[in-house]
Fold each of these.
Amino acid sequence: MVTVLDDEYVLQMDDIPPFSWLAKSHERIMNCRIESEEKIIIHAKGNAFTYSLISKNISGRNIEVDEFFENTGKGLHIIVSTGGDEEKSINFLRSIRGKCIVISGGGQIKKIARERGFEFISLPKGMPSRFMFPEIIGCISGLTNVENINDLSKGISKLSPASLTEENIAKSIAIKMKDKKPVIVYGEGGYGFARKFLEDLLQNSGIIPSLLSINQIDMINGTGEDSIIIEMSRSKKQRFKNSLFMEVKDGLGAVIYLLTLTSYISLYLSLLNERDFFLFDRLKE
């Protein structure tokens, strides 16, 4: 099966951002291992908040994720600020008492963290945060003692533009989703992943999907023929007929693969809809 996504101009996009960033997802995973038995409180907004939810999901540790920068309780505080100049992040960092780690691309927050003697971990510069999931999730997962991953290169290479549709699951799913209204349904362990897929579609493809819990049966069953249901859950059983099922698996490798897959799908949908890529974040911290 040859499709428009197999045209020569698409096959040659491997070395062009954002495809080149995704192709190296498995190489970009950061390891920030720091041993700590304390409760972990992660403070983050926007894409970084979503990554923190996913990290909590796979860590098995006592983690709280604070989107509003309000929790100053006891524990190890981790502030994730991709830009480093967000006022709320900076003001919160100034108020912290106790242990704190700052993960950021730099900016004012780096200076303040070092002035206060806190651990500072650098994120790469020049990349939108919606593509930084290998760095941020890898780093947080390292901090929370998640084991390292197996080699992902083979699986991720099959998602790239140079891979033909008949052997590329990301292209195949994008074609099935074209001209449909996506309804993303999350089950056990799937909320963070479903939220990330929604953000990918919104920011990369300009598509506004619905996001529903698997328990909202009436709303899910009420979707029309112009809709397509995407299930994201730890359950191995597909709940809805003709849905696209994406199993959420434990382990950092499986997490990075699934997030790379959804990112590729959203980019291929952008190509199918003849929409330009925006190499900046539309979802602000």
Amino acid sequence: MRSMRMMLAYLLVAPLIVTAADAKVLRSKGKSPTVLVFKDDEALSRSIRLVATPTLYSESVMESFLACKPPQGSKVEVLSSGRRTAVVRIVEGTANGCQGTVPIGNVRDK
């Protein structure tokens, strides 16, 4: 019975330890006060193509690809990641709860 309680306690506390150890923040290159979080991988890819074609660039079209624009240094939970992108959820601040895709280089240790 005691070992069962200890195992239950471990299962409840272990995720908190992992979360604290893996604390991440968003940082982008440049001097912008915000970081662009895209709705998904496709929106990120389309925005890159849009920026690469200046004659087609439109601020309103770019905005349609975004999930949110949290401030630099916003704390995030990494939901999944690959070689080029990560899916994150903002866990504090003005964009709390926003979820989307960012280039993997924008996810940094605290």
Amino acid sequence: MLATTWVGVLGTVVLLSSIVAGGAAAQPASCAKPAHLPAGSRDSKHRLLLTAREGDAIAINFDDSRSRQAYPILLSANAGQLLPSDFGSSSGLQAGAGDYYISRDGQHRISVNTGDQMRALLIPINPHVLQLCVIVQPNADGGVEPGRYKGTILIAHNGNQELLSVPIELTFRASHWTGIEIALVAVLLGLLVKVLSEAAARQRQEKTGAMRALKSYASELSFPVTLILAAIAGWFVFDQMYAGNPIWGSSGGDITKLFAVCFVAQMSSNQGIDVIRNMAGGAFSSPPPATANAG
């Protein structure tokens, strides 16, 4: 029965953690097919100007997924119209990173249009509308580390005429299985310390052997309650610290904090048992020892 209870508790932690960790990752999208543009020309009075809707930005939350994602936004061509020569030539429209990279810091960065990890495509829709489509393949070119990567996509014409800058932000989180493993180890160690502490106290109180004290403690109804509270505490901490942080794992302190809080949570879950005992009128406590009649 003891082994079954442990298996049930661990299964509960894994199940709850998996449900919580299945956050809202980026939804799949695709780039538009390029349209055929009619031939034409622009004079100096009708220079090409590009605008985006106010507040438009590229924001992709990958969660712990590393699958390919595309993010398209529409841009308007004002004054002069778009021409076939604006696309596919070195003297036409070009998209790239405004500061050379989309970066988390000086050591973690993503290049644009120089590898397979991120591509910024300009696709004609009609003579006055084009699509900026950013394609990110996180696992390409050595992969990416968890974190928040920020930068801008700069669109230029003729190689040096800057037309538009669009903010971009990518967020990556470490695998939820990593978080679950850390939480499970911390919960198990915390439970082990608590159970051994309770058994040691009972051994001193009853002046009995270590194994007998341990079996005595495990035979009480308060023991499965302790395991259930441990599962709930572990899930709650995981929910708050992993699911609540879209870039969990970007710092080594994230793992340390998750482990420490899950471990300490087991030490404080006795308070929950005390509440249950009070509400149940002591039903989970050992019966008081029998007293001899005075007569």
Amino acid sequence: MIGPIAITVLALTLATAVASWVVAAVYGVRALVALEGPDQKPLRKLALYAWPFAARRMTGAAGEYAAVVNKAIVVFIVCIVVAAATVSLATNYNRYTAPRADMGFGAADVDAA
């Protein structure tokens, strides 16, 4: 019963994670392009190596793009956590099943022993 629901939730979260990754990549490139001028070169390098520290220092259009990137990163992390929780719950709920007669746990097996 929980299997199809878990697969649906997992597919939706993974699709959302991919979409948020693409949004973060596109807006990240836009933020780097918006940093024009030779005086912005150190900030561009910092953005490549340590995004959270550089995003705070960005202003103007680059700062607006950086805000979108930060939100997309949060959505990506939330999707990964929800996907892991979905797999964990589906595994735990599908692990224990009620005994059935066709599985060898019926009354006929008890009488034969």
